[in-house]
Design a protein that fits this description.
Number of strands: 6
Largest sheet: 6 strands, mixed
Shape: globular
Radius of gyration: 19 Å
Helix content: 25-40%
Strand order of the largest sheet: 2-1-3-4-5-6
Distance between the termini: 46 Å
Number of domains: 1
Strand content: 15-25%
Order of helices and strands: HHEHEEEEEH
């Protein structure tokens, strides 16, 4: 039987804990080709706060990465704001939280936060999401799109 030193076992334990904790440390889902190659977005503000939609439009305009599409049908991506405090009509035969919904019920939005999601306009499939601290219609710190800009920066760095 092979003996391991306590230091070696301790190091293995730290690596194991680090691997388990990594997803909880704010690691974001990497950007897909559909996101990277998209040119236009259609905004869906489901927060009930018009101010957040205005803020998002202003940020997109300043960033210059995406054009705003006139309709869902003309967009490469749907950019949805959601705080979990709205009522949505569910098509007949479907149930809230079912697999047919783009964002599953298991992905709760923390109180005082807004989820920013990128969806496929044809299937409503979730491609990327992040949450940002908000209070009503106000962004608490930074900008709504900080997480998305960071994801694009990380993608660019990984391509070098």
């Amino acid at each position: 039987m092979r003996r391991y030193s306590y230091a070696r076992l301790g190091n293995l334990f730290l690596v194991f804990v680090g691997v388990l904790a990594w997803p909880a440390c704010g690691a974001q889902k990497p950007l897909t080709d559909a996101i990277v190659h998209a040119h236009s977005v259609f905004i869906e503000n489901e927060t009930g706060f018009n101010e957040l939609g205005y803020e998002l439009t202003l940020e997109l305009s300043k960033w210059g990465r995406f054009e705003l599409a006139e309709s869902r049908e003309k967009a490469d991506l749907i950019l949805r704001l959601d705080n979990g405090n709205h009522v949505r009509a569910v098509p007949e035969g479907q149930f809230p939280g079912s697999a047919s919904n783009a964002i599953s019920a298991g992905e709760e939005i923390p109180k005082g936060h807004t989820r920013i999601s990128l969806l496929d306009p044809k299937t409503d499939a979730l491609l990327w999401s992040d949450t940002h601290k908000t209070e009503g219609g106000k962004v608490k710190s930074g900008h709504l799109l900080d997480g998305l800009r960071e994801a694009f920066d990380n993608y660019t760095k990984s391509q070098r």
